[in-house]
Amino acid sequence: MTDQTDNRESSGENPVTTRRGVRSFVLRQGRMTEGQKKAYDRLWPEYGLTREDGMIDPRQVFGRDNMLNLEIGFGMGRSLADMAEAAPEQDFIGVEVHLPGVGALLKEVEERGLKNVRVYSIDANDVIDLCLPEACLDRVMVFFPDPWPKKKHHKRRLVQPEFVQRIRHKLRVGGVLHLATDWENYAEHMLEVMNEAEGFANTQEQGGYSPRPEERPITKFEKRGENLGHGVWDLLFYRTN
């Protein structure tokens, strides 16, 4: 395989997104390590999903009809691998645009012998719009998305009213959208969006943020932040209709 970088759009082949307009991500020129490349080469044919696959049937993809989770922006994949390993009775689809992260997750999948993980390496918006059937998901997780801290960049933040409504239609009624961030300003923005979102209700009867659920792993990054006194905010809302 040729050396994989995240510069996939310059070639015009299989662009990372088909959507126009403001994006919530910037493609970095990250190169895979040798171990990530080898894992990608070996495992992508088995675990990778593509836009060209079209609308999937999760029961066919996983060979069973179990609880289905979607993680958007899994980074280097450790938390997703931890969750999949801890819950072998559930299935997990991960989405990440940066290829080193995809390679890292596939390496974890191989080392842990996980069979309940599948991966997209395209814009999550394309996955939502073009690849997932209505009401197929039990849980959607967006953990520590890019906070775009400068006010002029807030429009790039992934969690926006329109995005949340498109997620809602992919969740079954009762399914949960779980958001987490370590930026207080973004947490406030998320809470405002979710409080106003049609068809969602807070799992916390008193409203506000949620305690971290046990199933969300604590990342090294998060531990380091906690040691420095940084806060982390979790929001869990479920689809009501």
Automatic annotation (TrEMBL):
Taxonomy of the source species: Bacteria, Pseudomonadati, Pseudomonadota, Gammaproteobacteria, Pseudomonadales
Q: Which CDD domains match?
A: AdoMet_MTases
Residue numbers binding S-adenosyl-L-methionine: 71, 96, 123, 146
**TM segments?**
none
Q: Kindly report, in one word, the top-level EC class recorded for this enzyme.
A: transferase
Provide GO CC annotations from the record: tRNA methyltransferase complex
To which pathway does this protein belong?
A: tRNA modification; N(7)-methylguanine-tRNA biosynthesis
**GO MF terms on file?**
tRNA (guanine(46)-N7)-methyltransferase activity
What residues does substrate bind to?
150, 182, 219-222
What PANTHER family is this protein classified in?
A: 3-DEOXY-D-MANNO-OCTULOSONIC-ACID TRANSFERASE/TRNA GUANINE-N 7 - -METHYLTRANSFERASE, PENTACOTRIPEPTIDE-REPEAT REGION OF PRORP DOMAIN-CONTAINING PROTEIN
Q: What is its EC number?
A: 2.1.1.33
Specify the protein name.
tRNA (guanine-N(7)-)-methyltransferase
> From start to end residue, where is composition biased (Basic and acidic residues)?
1-11
Q: Which UniProt keywords apply?
A: Methyltransferase, S-adenosyl-L-methionine, Transferase, tRNA processing
Region annotated Disordered, chain positions: 1-22
Function, in words: Catalyzes the formation of N(7)-methylguanine at position 46 (m7G46) in tRNA.
Q: Which Pfam families match?
A: Methyltransf_4
Q: Which InterPro entries match?
A: SAM-dependent_MTases_sf, tRNA_(Gua-N-7)_MeTrfase_Trmb, tRNA_methyltr_TrmB_bact
| Family, as annotated | Belongs to the class I-like SAM-binding methyltransferase superfamily. TrmB family.
Give the originating organism: Marinobacter persicus
Gene3D superfamilies for the chain: Vaccinia Virus protein VP39
Kindly state which reaction or reactions the protein catalyses.
Answer: guanosine(46) in tRNA + S-adenosyl-L-methionine = N(7)-methylguanosine(46) in tRNA + S-adenosyl-L-homocysteine
